């Protein structure tokens, strides 16, 4: 395998890998290995003979008495019952017997509701619900509409305001 020299700054002598095993064997034969004669760790005398008895003695120690961390449960139960009692009493005093009526609702709230949620009724369904006996033509004729309201309505409901052909003189 050839390695390009411009990318690798290291060099290897010729036939290094082919002769490596021979150099290693020769070097091991010449030099004395630097291995100590004695092991670094020593076990005490009869350690493995007495080990099972040491383990069993350690495991058979007297158990200590377990002390509960929360012995006063009655204190917490009393505090919870006082809190429930306080909430119940305050709830009874805060309840209002005032009933909500249609007069409490502002007309703009009703209009906003129908604008956002839609009426979901067609004009035919609405005409079936409105009684015609109570309506008079005079009710419609007596109301005067201001020009500003009419122009606002037309500007909102008409896509192309210029197609109405309104003259400024009229």
UniProtKB/TrEMBL annotation:
Record's keyword terms, sorted: Membrane, Transmembrane, Transmembrane helix
Domain of life of the organism encoding this protein: Bacteria
Name used for this protein in its record: DUF3379 domain-containing protein
Keyword hit for Membrane: yes
UniProt entry tagged with the keyword Membrane: yes
Bilayer-spanning residue ranges: 74-94
């Amino acid at each position: 395998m050839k390695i390009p020299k411009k990318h690798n700054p290291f060099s290897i002598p010729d036939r290094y890998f082919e002769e490596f095993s021979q150099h290693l064997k020769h070097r091991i034969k010449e030099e004395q290995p630097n291995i100590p004669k004695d092991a670094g760790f020593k076990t005490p005398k009869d350690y493995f003979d007495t080990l099972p008895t040491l383990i069993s003695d350690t495991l058979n120690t007297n158990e200590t008495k377990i002390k509960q961390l929360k012995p006063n449960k009655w204190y917490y139960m009393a505090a919870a019952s006082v809190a429930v009692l306080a909430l119940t009493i305050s709830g009874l005093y805060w309840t209002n017997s005032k009933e909500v009526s249609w007069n409490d609702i502002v007309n703009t709230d009703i209009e906003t509701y129908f604008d956002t949620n839609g009426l979901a009724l067609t004009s035919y369904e609405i005409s079936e619900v409105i009684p015609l006996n109570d309506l008079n033509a005079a009710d419609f004729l007596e109301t005067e509409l201001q020009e500003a309201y009419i122009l606002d309505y037309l500007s909102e409901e008409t896509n192309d305001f210029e197609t109405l052909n309104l003259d400024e003189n009229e």
